[in-house]
């Protein structure tokens, strides 16, 4: 079921509530209309931000809990069909693929420098995209896992690049001392 646009008024919210009660909960149209009429002045943005407690207050504990879950399903479906939702869904797949590629490449290297470079690339391919996806998707049960794993790996990538940068600065200063 499509949520009403954010610019819609309370009448469209009540019509939406009536539609989902009839179509998804098999409520009689008269009962659905009576329940939906309890929504008084809120607009679609208020419907999207309302919590389960608010739904229970407005519609009663019998209907509020089920209606809240149905609205949340529709919000999730709308997010999944949006461009950010699709990007958020598909980004981890190439990210994990690239990470596996770089890790396998690292284990096939003969020199330690090449191996560490591949591991650094793997951390960049995994960490930032996972953290990005975790922060973007508030409706996913794996949100915390994406954020934590992405931030941890990103932190290690930052450390590796910081150490590498310091090594390069040290090597450059040694070369300058030798030249002087």
Automatic annotation (TrEMBL):
Keywords attached to this Swiss-Prot or TrEMBL record, sorted alphabetically, are: Membrane, Transmembrane, Transmembrane helix
Q: Which segments cross the bilayer?
A: 89-107, 119-138, 144-163
Instruction: Return the protein name.
Output: Uncharacterized protein
Can you tell which superkingdom this protein's organism belongs to? Answer: Eukaryota
């Amino acid at each position: 079921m499509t949520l009403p646009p954010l610019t819609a008024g309370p009448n469209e919210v009540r019509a939406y509530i009536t539609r989902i009660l009839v179509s998804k909960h098999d409520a009689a149209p008269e009962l659905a209309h009576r329940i939906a009429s309890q929504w008084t002045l809120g607009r679609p943005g208020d419907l999207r931000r309302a919590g389960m407690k608010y739904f229970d207050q407005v519609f009663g504990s019998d209907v509020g809990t089920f209606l809240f879950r149905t609205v949340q399903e529709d919000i999730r479906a709308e997010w999944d069909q949006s461009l950010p939702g699709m990007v958020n869904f598909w980004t981890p797949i190439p990210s994990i693929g690239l990470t596996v590629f770089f890790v396998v490449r690292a284990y096939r290297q003969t020199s330690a420098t090449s191996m560490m470079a591949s591991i650094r690339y793997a951390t960049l391919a995994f960490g930032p995209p996972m953290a990005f996806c975790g922060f973007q998707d508030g409706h996913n049960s794996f949100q915390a896992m994406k954020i934590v794993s992405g931030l941890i790996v990103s932190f290690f990538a930052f450390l590796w690049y910081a150490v590498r940068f310091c090594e390069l600065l040290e090597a450059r200063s040694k070369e300058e001392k030798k030249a002087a």
